[in-house]
Design a protein that fits this description.
The protein has a 5-stranded antiparallel sheet with strand order 2-3-1-4-5, with helices on one face. Helix 2 runs antiparallel to helix 3. The protein has 126 residues and is α+β, with helices and mostly antiparallel strands. The chain has 3 helices and 5 strands. The chain has a single domain, classed as 2-Layer Sandwich (Alpha-Beta Plaits), CATH 3.30.70.1430. InterPro entries: EACC1 (IPR045428).
């Protein structure tokens, strides 16, 4: 399976707000051609707590194919650009990129670097 993890944060947000933002981004990602977007379990919940704990701000995206990563990165870029306090960290195996409030050109260069590294790795395996 082809998976990437996405960690989201927004300066000044509490846990409840971060959970809401994460779930909204999850819904947006599910509209893409991805296999699944999961919210991973967090550490065990304290005794007596209701429901399972989740890892706040983290999503695991199962890609339908490697070209879907482009759409995932573009969506993350748009999500960050809507609020200067947001940050997205996309982890693809050993590689990772961080998107913060910056110009589209800067985001394009960062995303292109991730995609080229992934492509070079795929060529080496073949």
């Amino acid at each position: 399976m082809n998976r990437v993890s996405i960690e989201v944060s927004e300066a000044g947000s509490d846990g409840e707000e971060l959970d809401r933002l994460t779930r909204r981004l999850r819904a947006d990602l599910l509209a893409l051609d991805v296999e699944d977007v999961a919210i991973p379990d967090g550490p065990p919940a304290p005794e007596g707590a209701k429901g399972a704990a989740t890892e706040l701000g983290t999503l695991v995206v199962t890609l339908a194919n490697s070209t879907v990563l482009i759409a995932v990165c573009q969506l993350a870029r748009m999500w960050v650009q809507t609020n200067k306090n947001r940050k997205v960290l996309i982890k693809d195996g050993e590689r990772s990129i961080e998107l913060v409030a910056s110009s589209q050109d800067q985001h394009d260069r960062i995303i292109d670097g991730l995609l080229k590294a992934r492509e070079a790795e795929a060529v080496e395996r073949d």
